[in-house]
Amino acid sequence: MQQEQIFTNARIVLADEVLTGSVLVRDGMIADISGPVSGGEDLDGDYLIPGLIELHTDHLENHYAPRPKVRWNPIAAVQAHDAQIAASGITTVFDALRVGTDEQADMGPHEMTVLSDAIRSSMAAGRLRADHFIHLRCEVSAPDCLAGFLKFQDDDQLKLVSLMDHAPGQRQFAQMESYRVYYQGKLKLSDEEFNAFVAARTADSQANSDRHRNAIAEICRERGIAMASHDDATIAHVDEAIAQGITVAEFPTTVEAALASHEAGLAVLMGAPNVVRGGSHSGNVSARTLAEQGLLDILSSDYIPFSMIQAAFGLGDMVDAITLPEAIQLVTKHPADAAALTDRGEIAIGKRADLVRVRLDSEVPIVRAVWRQGNRVI
């Protein structure tokens, strides 16, 4: 027996317009989009948007390791993370796990497999509100990066791999002073300890980055795993990414790198907190600047789950050239396309009924309800 739901009196955000009307859901899929109808669930003029798709969030680690040397039950950590994700309107999330141990790492590869196993078992048991995949963040400068990656290479949850190198003097921290402010303050190092830290990170990068980057990229190409570059700053970085088959440019740090990536067909991903705050916490290029120049393709919550929906609804007011449907695509259709998730990411007939009811109140949107495949989860 078919199950049907009707959502009516909604401001439906489609790909190119906002339509006041109704959505018919049948067996978890969108069956029809029309004008207002009688009956069904009255959304009282609220917005109805596609479920958000998050490609890069580091948030799970905060629940698993809430304090130094404190470890929470991994399934409980996944559930807590999932609850906050779903309440932020995110119905598909790529949980970022990292491989590559460096001096600042508090967790090693074994704990990443613990979290991966917790995600898998929680999904299988029906514990979670959102769909969960894995985004593996590979710190290619670390000596054990490739060994850690190989533990995941055949994991069917693994859908995205990013190649990153946080060594001093390049990419995210091209300016040494920015690197000093971030790491010396975070790790509470003396000047002597900081200088030793910089020397060790630099040596690791020189010894490992190129060979790890090339080896991991080759395996991903063979297995059809999408790849992202991270913190590209120069044309040379972008050329390297293109040669390796990368399709997503995560957090480019300069307009130059973002422009080259965009022109080459890479999807440019920036942090939604960058949009909300009005700039990068690392002092790099502003996401708003890229949006104004037509160079922004995807927004990610990065470290604040709610920032995605907040940025999407605020961006139209911040950038005159961006409409609400275009802003919503930055957190729905565009990340779906980048991850080859063809069954979701827009309100369209034949797509999954991953839907979010949103009301605007002042400058902060309110998530009033969330459905995944027609099932209400929030």
Percent strand equals 25-35%
Average per-residue pLDDT, rounded, comes to 92
Q: Summarize the amount of helix as a percent range.
A: 25-40%
Number of domains: 1
Question: What is the β-strand count?
Answer: 16
Biggest sheet, in brief?
A: 8 strands, mixed
What's the architecture in CATH terms? Answer: Alpha-Beta Barrel
Span of the ends, CA to CA: 25 Å
**Structural class per helix/strand content?**
alpha/beta
> Can you tell me the CATH superfamily?
Metal-dependent hydrolases
Task: Label the overall shape.
Answer: globular
Which regions contain 5 or more consecutive residues with pLDDT less than 50? none
Name a few traits of the molecule.
8-stranded parallel β-sheet, 378 residues, TIM Barrel, 8-stranded mixed β-sheet, alpha/beta
Gist of the model:
This protein has 378 residues and is α/β, with parallel strands linked by helices. The chain has helices at 59-64, 74-87, 109-124, 145-150, 176-187, 191-223, 235-244, 255-263, 272-277, 287-292, 307-318, 324-329, 333-338; strands at residues 4-13, 18-26, 29-34, 41-42, 47-50, 52-57, 90-99, 131-139, 158-164, 226-230, 248-250, 267-271, 298-300, 355-361, 364-372, 375-376. Helix content is 38%, strand content 26%.
